Amino acid sequence: MAYGLPRKNAVETILRCNCYKVQEPWELVLLTKTWYTNLANIKLPFLEEIAFGSSIHLKKCKTIKDGLLPSAESIQLEREYEMKRLNNLKCEENAAEEIQFSLRERPVGLRRPLPPK
C-alpha cells in the first residue's frame, strides 16, 4: 500500500479532489484511466511536454489528392509480385516436407562408441 498512497494523493491533487473520492486501488486505476482518456480525447500534447511547458512544433506538409489511389498498373505489378512470392514460399514448404519424409524413411542406427583414451 506504500506505493498506492502517493499515487492516490497525486491524482486527487491533479483532479482537485472535490468530486473524486478514491478508497480502493482499483478505483484509482479506473480514475487514472478516465483521466488519461479525457486528455487523449481533447488532444493535448504528451504529459511530459505539459509538465515542462514546451510547445509542439508541427511541420507543414502538402497532401496530394491525385496520388491517393494506386494505378491499375501498380496493382497488377503488386499482384504479380505477390503471386511469385507465394509460389516460392509454397515450393520451399514442399521441398522441406520432401526432405522430412526422406529423412523419416531412412533407417537410423546406433552410433559407434568412442574409442577409450
TrEMBL record:
InterPro entries according to UniProt: DUF4522 (IPR027825)
Protein's name in the database: Uncharacterized protein C4orf36
PANTHER family per record: C4ORF36 ISOFORM 11, CHROMOSOME 4 OPEN READING FRAME 36
Pfam families reported in the protein's UniProt record: DUF4522
Domain of life: Eukaryota
Organism: Balaenoptera acutorostrata
Lineage, highest ranks first: Eukaryota, Metazoa, Chordata, Craniata, Vertebrata
